[in-house]
Amino acid sequence: MTFSDRLAASWARSGSLLCVGLDPDPIRYPGPWRGDPEHTAEFCIAVVEATADLVCAFKPQIAYFAAIGAEDQLQRVIDHIRAHHPEIPVVLDAKRGDIGPTAEQYAKEAFDRYGADAVTVSPYLGLDTIEPFIAHERGAALVLCRTSNPGSGDFQLLDATFRPDASTTSPVYAHVARRVTERWGETGRVGFVVGATYPRELAEVRALVGDLPILVPGVGAQGGDPTAIAVAGASSDGTGLIVNSSRDVLYAGSRADDFADAARAVAEATRAGLGRPREVVARAPSER
Fold this sequence. Notes:
Blueprint: H1 3-14, E1 18-22, H2 40-51, E2 57-60, H3 62-66, H4 71-84, E3 91-96, H5 100-113, E4 118-121, H6 131-135, E5 141-146, H7 153-156, E6 159-161, E7 169-171, H8 172-184, E8 190-194, H9 199-209, E9 214-216, H10 226-233, E10 241-245, H11 247-250, H12 259-274
Parallel strand pairs: 1-2, 1-10, 3-4, 4-5, 5-8, 8-9, 9-10
Antiparallel strand pairs: 6-7
Helix pairs in contact: 2-4, 2-12, 8-9, 9-10, 10-12
């Protein structure tokens, strides 16, 4: 089963476009856990259990674990998801991008060590650096395209001409979407990352990549509007999106006795704002 197959099954099972990001920051842990990185796995697993029936995917951000020396706890969290919620895909947010032999090692890290279903990758070094993530027998890549950070336009918005087809001039992010789709669009192993803060560009990328999956970070703390994102980016059947919310969900509550319930409440509200898959295509044309 390819990554796209797993996502399709997850969208159908959950009725949700929501992905919960796992970005553990010990200074924000609830109650007596605050400031103690030894409780990282417990914290993340509590959020997983509170939201598992509401999501289409989980997205652990590797930097938050690595910065506090908690790679073993990342493994525990992913192992827990695999054991208790095997139907939910895991996207490892690592933003890898390096030359072939090194990329092969990063692919082994993501898929063999951690057991992820997909990993975020940077296309800046070229298509050959993406290949190892897709060639891995259990691999899939979500390619950075139009990201949500304010400085993303420094390079992603530059007009570029692809040679030898000198007639095609468009922003760099559009070239990424087009070239990756042409190369791997039929494999079921590729998708894209487009920030929730840019719904117009999200709609443009959707037009370029057809029904391929798009990971959309930036809902919640970064200001992305769930409804606008669902309308702009849904695929032809109303799915196609992995809309991520991290900090708003994780840190919705600060007390040890209610943080998981608070996380669930925010996840429910975000999911409702996105709408259920396939309901999006039924909205009025003026909304789309």
